[in-house]
Design a protein that fits this description.
The protein is α+β, with helices and mostly antiparallel strands. 30% of the residues lie in helices and 20% in strands. Strands 2, 5, 6, 7, 8, 9, 10 and 11 form an eight-stranded antiparallel β-sheet that branches. Helix 5 crosses helix 6 and helix 7 packs parallel to helix 9. The longest helix has 22 residues.
Length: 534
């Protein structure tokens, strides 16, 4: 039976005296295979050429890169820079992969698919290749597509997360989906393309075209949950937004399919609430006018930089999650201001979303030059200031931190204090929240979003938080520091600190940003063997 997302959310909170239900231990014998494969498919290797290596990250942010042609070579590099492997780590006898798109616990529930040139293909990230799942009628594809672009479909395998996190796993699947959207949008911008989630695609249509509703292809294997379809195009996104998926769904159902999914674990534990909330938040699809597309890219900032940024491709591929921070590390005020400016929902990557931005931020500022340590609110959309202020404690200062029109605009000091202990305590007593330069919590209007849009909005609130996290990851890399997402925090303790009652404002994700301490015990290799000498 479907489970109301509010009920799910309340039941999967962590508290000082109770964590959300999980197995309570890690069943290493059943750890999920990190790579989905479809046995019996044709495997098409993708380009190994390191395209776009000299493109400045500022041009990617601004969306000003000249469009590249869409072909198998550029599609391959687009996937490599969004969903591919970023590195292999090893310690003694253990070796594990990292990916360009971050994931909770490095478990990677997100799977990517491409629909192009009459193919429906699964991206096999370990091999950097396409597994051809279906060949559609070529005329049907040519008649349906608006221009020379292609589609990317995303699906989740909840078991990969629930193996470790139990009932809270659905949250983390949606965080990771948001990170994947960010990774895809930045990679598209690297090649001068637009990318946007298509609002007319219901989950049923998505599952049909990706083939993940084909029960016989998953006999004994873990099923995938349809999430969304994006168009990726060098041209306008408007024709894609208004095109109904029906013709492509019919072509997929009449297509020639091949391949069977591999089984990821020998045995599994069924977490019924995860399945129930997934059923409750199925997206029915809707018609969205072209005017819903987010606006123009932001104007590049003119503040002086303390160091030259690496090229965009390098930033995308070197993204890592910090495992520890140096508490002696400080962030400059100018760098802090640039990071906050990038979190305002305008341009790349925010234009990947077809829904309005709703999330606001609460910051625990520890070590930022010329910024008073304390608890802050960062209002990403000024229209939400009064609403957020009314919801919080009346004794908060709400003192504007801005010293000029573009310096820390939207940042408000609530309480000047040493909040290092508070940040760590709220984030499940993790030192990373206190030893970073700053950490933050993401607040979303849960109740009103569900009431206005429907239960499916629950997923998209987490997607937006994952997107915020991805921006923070890349801005950290660009600034010579590092970030890390924090999925473990005491939900209601955060709300109590801020004076938030009821279920309207909920903390959905935490993040820390600062100077990393590298683990020198680990060795690192490139994501793919052919990149070792590159």
């Amino acid at each position: 039976m479907p489970l109301d997302p509010v009920a799910y959310h309340l039941s999967t909170k962590h508290g000082f005296n109770r964590f959300a239900r999980s197995a309570g231990y890690l069943d290493w014998a059943n750890q999920p295979d990190p790579f989905r494969r479809y046995e019996g498919t044709d495997l098409v290797p993708l380009s190994r050429a390191a395209l776009g290596g000299a493109v400045p990250f500022e041009d990617v942010r601004a969306g000003t890169v000249a469009p590249s042609p869409v072909d198998l070579t550029t599609i391959g590099q687009f996937l490599r820079c969004s969903l591919g492997l970023s590195a292999w780590k090893s310690h003694r006898e253990t070796r594990w992969p990292l990916r360009v798109n971050p994931s909770s616990g490095n478990l990677h529930p997100t799977e990517g698919y491409v629909v192009w040139d009459g193919w429906v293909a699964h991206y096999a990230s370990r091999e950097h290749a396409l597994e051809i799942r279906a060949r559609l009628d070529g005329h049907a594809w040519d008649a349906w597509r608006p221009d020379g672009g292609f589609l990317v479909g995303l699906a989740s395998i909840p078991w990969r997360e629930s193996w470790k996190y139990g009932e809270r796993a659905f949250r983390y699947c949606q965080h990771d989906l948001g990170h994947a959207l960010g990774a895809l949008r930045y990679a598209a911008a690297l090649f001068g393309w637009r990318a946007v989630v298509l609002p007319r695609w219901s989950d049923e249509a998505t599952a049909a075209v990706l083939g993940i509703d084909r029960t016989g292809d998953y006999d004994g294997a873990e099923r995938e949950l349809a999430e969304c379809v994006l168009c990726v195009t060098p041209g306008s996104v408007e024709p894609w937004l208004t095109r109904a998926p029906d013709g492509l769904v019919a072509a997929a159902r009449a297509g020639t399919w091949q391949g069977r999914a591999n089984q990821l674990s020998r045995t599994r534990t069924d977490w019924e609430v995860v399945e129930a909330v997934a059923q409750a938040t199925v997206y029915p699809g809707r018609v969205a006018p072209a005017s819903d597309v987010p606006g123009a890219p932001p104007v590049p900032d003119s503040q002086p930089r303390q160091h030259a940024e690496p090229p965009a491709r390098q930033i995308l591929l070197q993204r890592r999650s910090a495992v520890a921070f140096d508490p002696r590390g400080w962030l400059s005020r100018a760098s802090f201001a640039r990071v906050l400016a990038r979190l305002k929902p305008v341009g790349v990557p925010w234009d990947v979303a077809d829904w309005p931005s709703r999330t606001q931020l609460v910051l625990f500022v520890h070590r930022v030059e010329d910024v008073t340590p304390g608890l802050y609110a960062f209002v990403r959309d000024p229209a939400g200031l009064d609403r957020l202020r009314r919801a919080m404690r009346p004794e908060f200062l709400w003192e504007a931190a801005s010293a000029g029109p573009d310096d820390l605009e939207g940042l408000y000091l609530l309480v000047p204090a040493d909040v290092t202990w508070t940040a760590a305590r709220l984030s499940c007593d993790q030192d990373i929240a206190a030893e970073s330069a700053f950490s933050l919590g993401m607040l979303a209007p849960l109740a009103s979003s569900l009431e206005e849009q429907g239960p499916w909005a629950y997923r998209r609130l987490f997607w937006e938080c994952g997107l915020i996290g991805h921006v923070l990851y890349l801005e950290a890399e660009a600034g010579g520091v590092r970030g890390t997402g924090i999925g473990c925090y005491y939900d209601d303790a955060v709300h109590d600190l801020l004076g938030l009652g009821g279920v309207e404002w909920q903390s959905l994700y935490h993040f820390a940003f600062g100077l990393p301490i590298e683990d020198t015990r680990l060795t690192t290799e490139p994501g793919y063997p052919w990149e070792r000498d590159g």
